[in-house]
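Input record, target 12 of the design panel.
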């Protein structure tokens, strides 16, 4: 491996668009045929839609294949073989890894992977890490509790695969992790934006260590949209004195996207391994043009154990207008994952986006990193309460901070808020995914 080469896979990452489309079509037909033959769940779904794998002759035909929702997977998993149900396309003997979704929006999905799938996972992550500047010689610290959630497992293996040295931060607590980073002079790490921000706070307040003075030069974030939100990225980069990159993936899908070094705030879709479609949630039509938001429906083109064919991810994304200056032909999505289709609720008739609120809160100086949004009803009227923390040294500037926050919120989200100021450090801290948004109207 030439460590100076720009791409992990120069052939695939610069494949002309028409060849990429041909590759996607070929692979899509192959995975459709595979699921039709080996999974009664998929076969029943396609038979019901009166579609056979050989009917797919162009990428436009892909639209005819029914999308799979998470609830359908949960139902299918009540059948045999236990615990994966008839989603499984291989025998149980071939399954080598169990993971599950966090189940934040209902029952968890159990995910089976074969050894080939597991190699595929780390190959996908190798594209990500190489694009973000990871090279042999990097010492990568992974501050995450290795467990049933897939999180950074594949990032660990990919870092080893490309020749980095990996330090598994496993069950160490946050302070021990920071001290280990300091002792070993680790150069890179991976984590959720929430946890990485919390780590910086712990370093400063409990260990009297300035995280920016440590040797971390790059951080890969995943699990939440934060690293693609401009003000959150800036807070992370300032705190650690490091470059911060985003990645989005999911247990049922795989590691489908990554930010490169050339277009901050945008992410490439790994189109050699995934077919991403943006679908208008209202009309169900495909969105090809840049700048229009829709939900991601995605196919993992090479995953065989428990495949992902036209999975309705409910992630809200939009295509970016221009190709990336890095030279990759993989398309970019603008602003990363913009939220969940389910989260984008209407308040007083206006669409409310939690990522827009995060961007405002993190851009106001004097506020802590944590916040919480609660939507409820007062009489017949929707009400949004935003809870924020005031940092210790800003208490005497509270009124001006409040004015600025209210003004920016109105400007960026077109809504008015009831603001609650809480003492610094009193809102909940999250180790994995933060739960900052509560809609009490649904109860
Ligand atoms: Zn790029």
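The sequence produced for target 12 reads:
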């Amino acid at each position: 491996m030439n460590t100076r080469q720009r791409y992990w896979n120069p052939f695939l990452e610069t494949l002309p668009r028409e060849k990429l489309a041909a590759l996607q079509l070929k692979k899509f037909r192959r995975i459709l045929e595979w699921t039709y033959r080996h999974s009664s769940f998929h076969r029943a779904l396609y038979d019901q839609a009166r579609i056979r794998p050989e009917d797919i002759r162009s990428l436009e035909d892909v639209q005819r294949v029914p999308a799979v929702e998470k609830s359908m997977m949960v139902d299918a998993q009540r059948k045999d073989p236990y615990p994966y149900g008839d989603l499984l396309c291989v025998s149980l003997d071939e399954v080598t890894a169990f993971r599950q979704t966090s189940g934040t929006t209902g029952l968890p999905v159990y995910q089976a992977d074969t050894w080939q799938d597991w190699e595929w996972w780390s190959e996908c992550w190798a594209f990500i890490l190489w694009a973000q500047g990871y090279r042999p010689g990097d010492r990568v610290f992974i501050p995450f509790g290795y467990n049933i959630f897939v999180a950074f497992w594949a990032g660990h293996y990919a870092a080893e695969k490309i020749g980095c040295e990996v330090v598994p931060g496993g069950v160490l607590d946050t302070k021990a992790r920071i001290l280990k980073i300091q002792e070993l002079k680790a150069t890179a790490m991976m984590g959720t934006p929430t946890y990485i921000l919390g780590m910086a706070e712990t370093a400063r307040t409990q260990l009297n260590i300035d995280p920016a003075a440590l040797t971390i030069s790059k951080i890969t974030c995943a699990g939440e949209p934060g690293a693609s939100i401009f003000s959150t990225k800036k807070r992370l980069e300032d705190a650690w004195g490091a470059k911060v990159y985003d990645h989005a993936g999911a247990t049922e899908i795989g590691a489908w996207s990554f930010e490169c070094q050339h277009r901050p705030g945008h992410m490439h879709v790994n189109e050699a391994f995934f077919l991403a479609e943006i679908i208008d949630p209202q009309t169900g039509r495909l969105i090809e043009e840049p700048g229009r938001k829709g939900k991601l429906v995605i196919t993992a083109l090479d995953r065989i154990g428990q495949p992902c064919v036209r999975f309705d991810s409910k992630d809200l994304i939009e295509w970016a207008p221009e190709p990336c200056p890095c030279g990759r032909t993989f398309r970019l999505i603008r602003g990363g994952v913009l939220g969940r289709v389910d989260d984008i609720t209407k308040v007083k008739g206006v669409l409310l986006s939690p990522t827009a609120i995060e961007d405002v809160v993190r851009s106001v100086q004097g506020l802590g990193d944590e916040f919480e949004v609660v939507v409820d009803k007062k009489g017949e009227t929707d009400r949004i309460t935003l809870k924020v923390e005031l940092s210790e040294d800003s208490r005497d500037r509270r009124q001006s901070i409040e004015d600025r926050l209210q003004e920016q919120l109105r400007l960026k989200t077109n809504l008015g808020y009831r603001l609650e100021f809480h003492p610094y450090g009193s809102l909940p801290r999250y180790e994995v995914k933060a739960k900052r948004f509560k809609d009490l109207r649904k109860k």
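The radius of gyration is 22 Å.
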